[in-house]
Amino acid sequence: MKILTLGKILNDYRDFLSDCEIEKLREIQKRPTAFATQAKELHRVLFDEETDYMLDSGGNSKRRSRGINPLSQEYTDRVNKKRGAFGVSLLGSNGFAADNSSGLFCEEVVRQTKNYKELWELKGRNAKQIVFVDMDDVLVNFQSGIDKISEEDKKKYGPDHFDNVPGIFALMNPYEGAIEGYKWLSKNFDTYILSTASWDNPSAWSDKLLWVKKHLQEEAHKRLILTHNKHLAKGDFLIDDRTANGAGDFSGKHIHFKENGKGFEDWKKVIAYLENLT
Questions:
Q1: Cβ-contact 130, 234 below 8 angstroms
Q2: Residues 6+ apart with CB under 8 A from 10
Q3: Using alpha carbons only, what angle is made at residue 194 by residues 176 and 33, rounded to the nearest 5 degrees?
Q4: Which residues partner with 173 through β-bridges?
Q5: Residues with catalytic annotation?
Q6: In angstroms, rounded to a whole number, what is the distance separating the alpha carbons of residues 88 and 65?
Q7: Is the dihedral of CA 239, 242, 244, 250 positive or negative?
Q8: Who's near 173: CB < 8 A, 6+ residues apart?
Q9: Which of 96, 94, 70, 71 has the alpha carbon at shortest distance from 83?
Q10: How far apart are CA 133 and CA 195, in angstroms?
Q11: Which of 33, 203, 262, 268 could be 256's S-S partner, Cβ–Cβ 3.0 to 4.6 Å?
């Protein structure tokens, strides 16, 4: 999926748009609306082919159900050329999109264009967007703790329950680039640590607090949140290497750390992305 602003779409992708679509995009560009509203409006203009099925006749509906696209090949090729240019999934053989990449694309366009109501309201209050940062394998190098425990504990808790080793979190080193990255975030965003501690390892809860005090000090003072329900946290961005414990249902942008193909393989790439959104 490409990361584009609305202005860049209008300037560089006109060949994939009709005159009517260009006019509608300009109208969206003129007025700041709520984030979700603007993303939906963009989706209706850029990817209206995804609602074609709503106009299907009974016969066409049956064809789709059998995996047959009732639309012309010329139309499908033209639409898929546009979708490919934007880096979203192509229409399948039945004329349906394979996933929600077009919806995520539109949300990212709104985010990059920075002309939505909630952001203007934040700026009016001189406030910052909220960023949550996970600990394990984002701020903290989890493997570094495993490397320091005894062979006996490795056999007892490995390979799936190392987080239950008493005291293991006190042994862990910072992830490469994490300390500098967090400090940059704390200057440019309203930044919190959002982590999960093992329910069966009481030392993990206190050790995570001590780790934050040692490595992040004043930048993270009283900004540590430990929970098994990250989806309840309300904010704009979550930097997390997994979708577990509610991270996958976070209402804002999940910056999927270290996930190949997501563009956030390390802290340098995370900061490069967020620099455009301050």
A1: yes
A2: 22, 25, 26, 29
A3: 105
A4: 141
A5: 134, 136
A6: 23
A7: positive
A8: 140, 141, 144
A9: 96
A10: 8
A11: 262
Sign of CA dihedral 251, 253, 255, 256: positive
- What lies within 8 Å, CB to CB, of 28 at 6+ separation is 6, 38, 41, 42, 45
pLDDT score for 263: 81
Residues 6+ apart with CB under 8 A from 219: 182, 183, 186, 191
Question: What phi and psi, each to the nearest 5 degrees, are found at residue 92?
Answer: -80, -175
Q: Which of 46, 4, 1, 55 is nearest to 25 (CA)?
A: 46
- All domains in the chain, ordered by first residue: 6-122 (no CATH), 128-275 (3.40.50.1000)
Strand partners, 136: 140
pLDDT at 75: 87
Work out the end-to-end distance of the chain between its first and last CA atoms, rounded to an integer number of angstroms.
21
Q: How far is CA 69 from CA 56, 92, 133, in A?
A: 11, 8, 43
Q: In what order do the strands lie in the sheet with 130-133?
A: 224-226, 190-195, 130-133, 237-240, 253-256
Residues 6 or more apart whose Cβ sits within 8 Å of residue 243: 254, 256
Mention every residue, 6+ apart, whose C-beta is less than 8 A from residue 6. Answer: 25, 28, 29, 42, 109, 110, 113, 115
Q: What is the mean pLDDT of each run of 10 residues along the chain (278 residues)?
A: 96 96 97 96 95 58 57 87 97 88 97 97 97 98 97 95 95 97 98 97 96 96 98 98 97 92 90 95
Mapped onto helix, strand or coil, the DSSP state of residue 190 is: strand
Q: Name the token pair of 218.
A: 């004043």
Q: In this structure, is the dihedral angle defined by the CA atoms of residues 171, 177, 179 and 181, taken in order, positive or negative? A: negative
Residue 222 carries which DSSP code? T
DSSP labels for 101-130? HHHHHHHHHHHHHT--HHHHHHHHTT---E
